[in-house]
Design goal:
The protein is 64% helix and 6% strand. Helix 3 runs parallel beside helix 10 and helix 9 runs antiparallel to helix 10.
Length: 228
């Protein structure tokens, strides 16, 4: 297919496709004439993956480039690709990690992982991220959330098991490594969206707000209209 059809089928504007080609996020098509190239179904699939990473997963172009390059690496095992995907979703802004408070939080993060018997590298980036959160919660005095960590741990462990089982069940190495990326990056966005919905529901129930079925069966809060 020509680039125009690729644009139509993917919903991605032609200038954006050309940008992805320049950024090595999409492999060049097969040259058929000067300034013309043909693209196949593999290009369409890759383009949809790139858009999902950037638009839905919130991954930067630079991080998406690393993920795409890792997907093309023939000898990279799914477990190693998981590290690349983790790097892609790691925030670029970081708090001060040189304080005593942060080091205490980092030790607590390691203790939590060890207490669950999790097989993680001592320098795993996720341990640093967990320490960032623990240090911030402690500084804010949010000890009630820290006291609920076991619930977060249980939920994370259950979800991780489901996601990894899905990867292993695919069997085919190519499809396995792709699901590692999709499950990590989009799974992050999926859980975040569901959690927001669940929080809204829990708040409405616990605060005794009235509810009414809205369009499509979605439940919405009923708000008392002001009297005039």
């Amino acid at each position: 297919m020509r680039i125009g059809e690729l644009s139509r089928r993917s919903g991605v504007p032609v200038p954006t496709i050309k940008y992805y080609l320049r950024e090595a996020l999409l492999e060049p098509g097969e040259t058929t004439a000067p300034n013309q190239a043909d693209y196949g179904e593999a290009h369409l699939r890759r383009l949809r993956l790139v858009r999902a990473l950037i638009d839905v997963g919130g991954v930067s172009v630079a991080a998406a480039r690393l993920v795409i390059a890792a997907l093309a690496a023939p000898d990279l095992a799914p477990h190693d690709l998981l590290g690349v995907a983790h790097h892609a979703v790691t925030p670029t802004r970081r708090p001060d990690r040189g304080t005593e408070e942060w080091r205490a939080a980092r030790a607590e993060a390691a203790r939590i992982a060890a207490g669950r018997g999790w097989l993680v590298e001592p320098e795993a980036v996720a341990l640093d991220l967990l320490a960032d959160v623990l240090a911030a919660l402690t500084a804010l005095g949010a000890m009630d959330i820290i006291g609920s960590l076991d619930h977060y741990v249980e939920a994370a462990e259950q979800l991780a098991g489901i996601e990894v089982d899905a990867v292993v069940a695919r069997g085919d190495p190519t499809r396995m490594v792709e699901l590692v990326v999709v499950g990590t990056v989009l799974g992050e966005a999926l859980f975040s969206a569901l959690r927001l919905l669940a929080q809204e529901h829990a708040s409405a129930v616990r605060l005794g707000l009235g509810t009414a079925a809205g369009p499509g069966g979605v439940v919405s809060r009923s708000v008392d209209k002001p009297t005039t």
